[in-house]
Design brief:
The complex is a heterodimer of chains A (311) and B (252).
Chain A: H1 24-30, H2 33-69, H3 75-79, H4 93-124, H5 129-143, H6 146-158, H7 165-189, H8 193-201, H9 206-234, H10 238-241, H11 261-269, H12 274-303
Helix pairs in contact in A: 2-12, 4-5, 4-7, 4-9, 4-11, 5-7, 6-7, 7-9, 8-9, 9-12, 11-12
Chain B: E1 5-14, E2 17-27, E3 32-36, H1 43-50, E4 60-68, E5 71-72, H2 79-85, E6 86-89, H3 101-110, H4 117-130, H5 134-137, H6 151-164, E7 169-173, H7 181-194, E8 199-203, H8 207-213, E9 216-221, E10 224-230, H9 231-236, H10 241-247
Parallel strand pairs in B: 3-8, 3-9, 6-7, 7-8
Antiparallel strand pairs in B: 1-2, 1-4, 4-5, 9-10
Helix pairs in contact in B: 3-4, 3-6, 4-6, 6-7
The chains are: A mainly alpha (311), B alpha/beta (252).
């Protein structure tokens, strides 16, 4: 517009600072194409090597479990309860179902509490005393050894009563909560402020914005956090030793001792019988496959019908 | 239909910074009003005070009176209530990335618990038509994410989203500053068409844009409103020396 007619500043600009001549002998020569390509290949190679090193142990464990355990897998393994000492055969049906029940109890308690605490930290509690206290507690809880968790829940829920599936579920739930809480908090922090403003600007109340916009946008990361927590506690033995105890017989009662795969593997692996050692390997294989299948199923269900953004 | 806005002795702070100092202004109903001024002069804070978005920042605070029609928005109603009646379009398009185009436009109704499918369908179609986006997206309303559209389409979708809750006032904070010239001219045409039905307040750095779309223009400088008059007067014969300096490019 009229700006071009009035350019009083144009003559007041400072003199440009002279640039030093390019040094081709040292810096220039070092960064020639061959060197760049070499560095590129070296860094890419290092990244690939690191990936292999991460995946290799998982594949090695899986292959070894299949090698040791697959031969003991048969229909009876999935349908029978453990056989008494000295008798051949028997299976882990009660432990498989027991693990499922304990993990369902743990998830039903741990996931809602964990997510709710994460929402509090991210949306309401930042900077407050309670918020900092919750965050600190979650971090400390994450570092508590699982055997300590078992003893604590034993003292709270088992002593004076009896071992139960409930107590096992509570012990595992407490172990899930810190991971879920901190992941939820961090994933909510990645949701851009502009998206929350869009919802608030439409007259959507804050609680509704948090649930339907912020949590929904962060849900893929939160689901990953829940799966990590689930996979971690699914293989825990120590917290169940003093709570669910284990059971050699068929039992679905929630207020009585219940079998669990890690406990049954522990009992069989520390026994003096070769037959039981083989069953322990098979149990370990089943446990790992169950974890992989449940994580995959949750991912498929969570992604079904989801709309993906372009940018 | 739109309502007029009467602003009296409006002051706003961020922490200890006095961002808006005693603003008095009458914004007429069913007209477009442009706010111009250098960066940091308080224009954005001003429009954010008109729908009480300003106070969503924990360190922010505002005093004074803002009347929409007979309603004093700082005394008579909750912030949530007033934001349903005052739509807002932001500088950068901010679609909900997990929602389809349909759900983005319907979000203001749906997130407030409105469920009637037939009325939702009609509202989405009417809003997208008002925002001149219907023909471009009508075939993938529920298939595509709102975030998969181009920047200009996203911004028009955000306008449709604001229109869907049937506001009386539409606030636009530099709605075209992140867009290319073609998308910008579409947004301007849109503002021109919408102002017969809504009271529009538009913040802009682009003075030609203010001249093209707005009947009235206000000039802000350092948290004060220096001059408010018809756009024609502001750009041809401003009464304040600072306004003249700004629009002729001597500073800012």
């Amino acid at each position: 517009m009229a700006a071009s007619a009035n350019t009083p500043q144009s003559n007041n600009l400072p003199e440009p600072v002279p640039r030093p001549p390019m040094d081709f002998t040292t810096r220039g020569m070092r960064w020639n194409n061959a060197w760049r390509n070499g560095v590129n290949y070296a860094v890419s190679g290092a990244a690939i090597l690191a990936t292999v090193l991460v995946i290799a142990p998982l594949i090695a464990i899986l292959v070894y479990l299949i090698y040791k355990g697959a031969t003991s897998l048969n229909v009876a393994f999935f349908t029978n309860v453990p056989a008494p000492v000295g008798q051949p055969g028997g299976g882990m049906a009660n432990s498989i179902v027991g693990s499922g029940i304990i993990l369902a109890l743990a998830s039903a308690m741990g996931v809602p509490i964990g997510i709710a605490a994460g929402v509090y930290l991210a949306e309401y509690g930042s900077g407050t005393f309670l918020g900092n206290a919750v965050r600190f507690t979650a971090d400390v809880l994450n570092g508590v050894p699982s055997i300590v968790m078992g003893i604590s829940v034993f003292a709270l829920l088992v002593q004076g009563r009896h071992f139960s599936a409930y107590a096992g579920g509570v012990a595992l739930a407490i172990m899930m909560i810190p991971t879920i809480t901190r992941t939820t908090e961090e994933m909510l922090a990645t949701v851009p402020h502009s998206i929350r403003e869009a919802a608030l600007g439409l007259g959507v109340p804050k609680w509704r914005t948090t649930i339907s916009v912020a949590l929904r946008t962060a849900s893929p990361g939160i689901i990953t956090g829940c799966m990590l927590a689930f996979a971690r506690v699914a293989g825990e033995t120590a917290p169940l030793l003093f709570t669910a105890l284990g059971n050699q017989f068929w039992s679905l009662k929630l207020n009585e001792p219940i079998g669990a795969l890690p406990l049954q593997i522990y009992v069989y692996a520390t026994s003096p019988y070769d037959e039981w050692h083989r069953l322990a390997w098979a149990g370990a294989l089943v446990l790992i496959v169950m974890i992989m299948v449940s994580v995959t199923l949750v991912r498929i269900f969570a992604n079904r019908g989801a709309i993906r953004g372009g940018n | 239909m739109g309502v007029g806005i009467l602003v009296e002795h409006l002051n706003a702070w961020y922490g200890t910074t006095h961002t808006l100092q005693d603003i008095n202004l009458h914004i007429p109903a069913n007209h477009a009003t442009a706010l111009i001024g250098p960066s940091g002069c308080g224009k954005s804070t001003f429009v954010r005070c008109l729908n009480r978005m300003h106070e969503t920042n924990p360190i922010a605070r505002a005093t004074g009176t803002v009347k929409m029609g007979d309603l004093d928005i700082y005394a008579d109603v909750s912030p949530v209530e007033i934001r349903r009646r005052v739509g807002m379009v932001f500088q950068r398009p901010n679609p909900f990335p997990t929602m389809s185009i349909y759900d983005n436009v319907a979000s203001g109704l749906k997130l407030n618990g409105f469920r009637n499918r037939k009325i939702l369908d009609e509202t989405v179609e009417r809003s997208l038509k008002s925002a001149a986006l219907w023909d471009e997206v009508k075939d993938d309303l529920k298939k595509k994410s709102g975030a998969s559209l181009s920047g200009g389409q996203q911004q028009r979708m955000c306008i449709a989203r604001a229109l869907a809750v049937d506001p009386e006032v539409l606030l636009m904070d530099e709605p075209a500053s992140a867009l290319d010239p073609v998308s910008t001219s579409k947004i301007e045409d849109l503002i021109f068409n919408l102002k017969s039905q809504y009271t529009i307040v538009i913040v802009t750095h682009n003075m030609q844009q203010a001249a093209r779309v707005a009947e009235n223009t206000g000039f802000f400088l350092n948290g004060k409103m220096v001059e408010f008059d018809s756009t024609h007067k502001i750009f041809t014969n401003p009464s304040d020396k600072r306004t003249e300096d700004y629009i002729t490019g001597r500073f800012g």
